[in-house]
Amino acid sequence: MRILIAEDERKIAEFIRRGLKEEGYAADTAASGTDALRLAEENPYDLLLLDVMLPGLDGVEVCRRLRAGGYAAPILMLTARDRVEDKVKGLDSGANDYLTKPFAFEELLARVRALLRPAPSAAALLKAGDIEVDLLAHKASAAGAALDLSAKEFALLEYLARNKERIVTRTMISEHVWDINFDTGSNVIDVYINHLRKKLEKSGAKAAIRTVRGKGYLLEPDA
Ligand code: CA
């Protein structure tokens, strides 16, 4: 899951980015409304954290423009103001939720989880053969046994399971699981794929990650 943090106060932006990273999210930051708009249009973020008071365009305007263009990712507004009309303005511009500064990081995290949670009608459990990825509990299992995964390995398995039986390229993986600083020349993805593959093999899972030469990877439910 990849998140854009639009916040011009560097300390706050960095604090949020680091906290989200520790939870296994990939996160980028934007320090102005115009940057936020550009990054949101260029990258497939799963969620936007949008400060209202931003230089360039304010958060409400960024939100309004994105929604007018059909932007579908959830948007969580952050603001120092606690006035009812500000909240109403934010929500009316198309934000999904609202958080007033200062906030406890735990609360931010709970709201992020809630916004990223699949709708009740959608499956909270991804299945690929004998692999199960529980999006609510943030746990995965293979062949009935729990997998001990790092936050990044979990994010990678989640992405592969969402796209099971489809080839995902390294670019697709880097765009959804890593942030904008990802070095496309590095072999980080291959290293993580190998770790994950070994853990799946050790568990005795029938499902496996196949390398498709020159293209990318494929999670096969019944390899
Ligand atoms: Ca601000």
Could you describe the 3D structure shown?
The strands form three sheets. The protein has a five-stranded parallel sheet with strand order 2-1-3-4-5, with helices on both faces. The protein is an alpha/beta fold and 223 residues long. It has two domains: 2-116, Rossmann fold, CATH 3.40.50.2300; 125-220, Winged helix-like DNA-binding domain superfamily/Winged helix DNA-binding domain (Arc Repressor Mutant, subunit A, Orthogonal Bundle), CATH 1.10.10. The radius of gyration is 19 Å and the shape is elongated. The protein has helices spanning 10-22, 33-42, 59-68, 84-92, 105-116, 151-162, 170-177, 188-203; strands spanning 2-6, 26-30, 47-51, 75-79, 97-100, 125-128, 131-134, 139-142, 145-146, 208-212, 216-220. It binds calcium ion. The site of calcium ion has 6 residues, from loops.
Q: List the helices and strands in order.
A: EHEHEHEHEHEEEEHHHEE
Instruction: Look at the structure and name the CATH superfamily of the largest domain.
Output: Response regulator
Text of the CATH class of the largest domain: Alpha Beta
| Helix count from the secondary structure assignment | 8
Strand content: 15-25%
Report the structural category.
alpha/beta
In short:
The chain contains eight helices and eleven strands. It is of the alpha/beta class and 223 residues long.
